[in-house]
Amino acid sequence: MDFPPKTVPPQEKAADPAEEQPVGAESATETPSTGRRLSKPWRIARNVVLGIIGTIFLAWLILYITKGRFLKHPFERTVAAMTHRAVKVPGDFQLYFDPINIHFVAEGMTISNPAWASKPNLFEAKRIDTRIATFPLIFGNRRIRWLDMLDGAIDLEWSKDRKSNTWTFSEGKGKPFEMPLIRRATVSGTTLRYVDPRLQLSVDLAFQTIKASDTRFENTIQFTGKGMERTTPFTLYGAMLTPNATVTNGKNQLEMHIKAARTAIDVSGTLDAPTRIEGANLKVTARGTNIADLFSIIGVAVPETRSYRLDSALTKVGDEYRFTGLKGHFGDSDIGGTLTVAMLEPRLKITATLATRTLDIVDVAPFIGYNPDEVAARGKAGVIKQVGGAPRLLPNATLRVESLRNFDAAVQYKVRSLRAKSVPVSNIDLTLGLDNSLITLSPLTFDMARGHVSSDIKINARQRVVHTDYDIRLSPTPMGVLLAGYGVDEAGTSGTVKARIQLTGDGDTVHESLSTSNGRIAIIIPAGSFWTRNVQLSELDIGTFVQKMFEGKLKEPVQINCGLIAFTVRRGIAAADPILIDTKKNVILGRGGFSFRNESLDLALRADGKKFSLISGQSPVGLNGYFAKPGIDVISPQLLTRAGAGLGLTLVASPIAGILAFVDVGDAKSAACGPVLSGATARAQRTTMGEPRDDVGHGTTAKAEDGKKTSGERKEQRKKFLGVF
């Protein structure tokens, strides 16, 4: 059965475009549809962007209309959470975009300090009005386009351990303070406080009104202030002469003047940042009446000086303040070199290399405890004090033990020559160390009269009572050169001398230390010659002296075989042990001693002839008085007794009998030079025959423990000193 063909409805035919359109027509129909409609992801992205822009605009509009005043409390909470500080704005508050930059206004705003700080707030201001560049801030760059601050107060303070500071909000080591970039500003009534416990420094600065526009300050930034360094108050004033360098990341030209403790300090140069001395290039000039005042500002004890002036370059590297190219003068002496102050724990440390071309003798005075101004004004009298009616020469300046605990030191000091009339000293070389209150002057060397002195001195201030060890050595030195300033004829003296002083004592002054000292002093004289007149005066060999005087041979030298002037020191009392000088014609012997306690002298010297002498006093010469005022007793009681005996014999017998009272039979025993030249004690001394000497080692010294003697004791002492011969 045949069926008729199926008829397809027209609407169904239209639904099959493949059948209705020829091949290649698809692209022609789809392309216009894509240009009119976005795919679904693109439509979502578009809507999100439009939503964000709308939201931002809406937020901007709301903020602009309301000035963002409703954000005050969220701002306080957010900033407080980020900084871990309390943030308060009790007055007007504005925070909005104007139109792009952030416009911030706060009245009475405060940001608190951490609990350890000494001030409650890091920052406070009566009013602050500022515009901050938005996009640079997103990347961590603070660019302030406008700043208007009234009655601001900033507190910059380091913690005691110097690990934290008030302006570093994150945990970890405190960072240096960095100024933001400011394009325009007006700042008035602003103060800044800086505190550094390690330096024991606090300073309060007040700034004059500062105006800036178009990245340039309209005037210099001037400031005044006052502060305290340890226990020393100071004042200062200064200015940043090129403040526009701050906003261009350039160098800041600084000029500052400080006055403290009779000291004036001028600072000029450039800083990388206004509050950063790291890497600075500064010039410092310090001047005053006493350099000890300058160093006392940082708690460092140095000897006092006369007026001084020092110039130096200054920079800071890490914990070190470096003074280089240092040059200047103190008193009539010059000085130069380098000095570094390192802020270390537990004590700061001073390292210095210093040199002086010419050191004036007056400027040496404070190094051993004398007042240089008194020495300069009064000469020798300036070092003598009256104590209990007696003159005192040894310095009594107290060692500053407390100051020594504040620092350590390593100092190298050299002096080319010493300016002095009677002291032929040059090439001084001192190495000073200070380690936890232990001072070492080791070595301390210098040349003296073509000889050399080397010393090692140790002062231990770690214990309750300061203890000092002295070891001073003089190499063989020509006596003529050494004593030329005291009237000895160098041409007639060829002998040499060497010496050693070894003492230990307790006390915080030179006088106290020596007053309690124990040890030995020895001066050794090898073979040589000495000017006749000086020896003859000590011998009182009248016949020989007069004979040589009439013969015109007054300066004929006396030949010395060997000699030893030695003292054993016990509790500050020195006893001759021995005094023994062997010459070609005589043996000179000495008894007695001296006291470091009251600085008294009580010595007797006598010469016994080796040959017969017709007229000889045969009587000791007394050396008495004090270190500061010695006396010579040429006419001793023994000589007067001999003169009386001679006069009596002359009257009752004959003139010849009177002369016999002054005859010296010449029985002196020559000394064995071996023990003498080795500096041996009196007990070890021998004659040339090898026999023990019985004419040395029997002297006595002052008995009084307190350095005072009664009139009867003095007479008894004198009798013993001069009567043992």
Topology:
Blueprint: H1 10-14, H2 17-20, H3 26-36, H4 40-66, H5 72-83, E1 87-88, E2 93-97, E3 102-107, E4 110-112, E5 121-132, H6 134-138, E6 143-157, E7 181-182, E8 185-188, E9 190-196, E10 201-207, E11 210-213, E12 216-217, E13 221-229, E14 232-240, H7 244-247, E15 252-260, E16 263-271, E17 281-288, H8 291-296, E18 308-317, E19 320-330, E20 333-342, E21 348-360, H9 361-364, H10 372-378, E22 385-387, E23 390-392, H11 401-404, E24 407-419, E25 425-435, E26 438-448, E27 451-460, E28 467-478, H12 479-482, E29 496-506, H13 510-515, E30 518-525, E31 528-531, H14 532-539, H15 542-550, E32 557-570, E33 573-583, E34 586-595, E35 600-609, E36 621-626, E37 630-633, H16 637-652, H17 655-660, H18 673-677, H19 711-723
Parallel strand pairs: 6-7, 6-8, 6-9, 21-24
Antiparallel strand pairs: 1-4, 2-3, 3-5, 4-5, 5-6, 8-11, 9-10, 10-13, 11-12, 13-14, 14-15, 15-16, 16-17, 17-18, 18-19, 19-20, 20-21, 22-23, 24-25, 25-26, 26-27, 27-28, 28-29, 29-30, 30-32, 31-32, 32-33, 33-34, 34-35, 35-36, 36-37
Overall description:
By secondary structure, the protein is of the alpha+beta class. Among the domains are: 51-276, no CATH class; 537-554 and 576-725, no CATH class. 22% of the residues lie in helices and 41% in strands. The strands form 2 sheets. The chain has a 35-stranded mixed sheet that branches. It has a two-stranded antiparallel sheet with strand order 22-23. A hairpin with a 2-residue loop joins strand 32 (557-570) and strand 33 (573-583). 28% of the residues are buried.
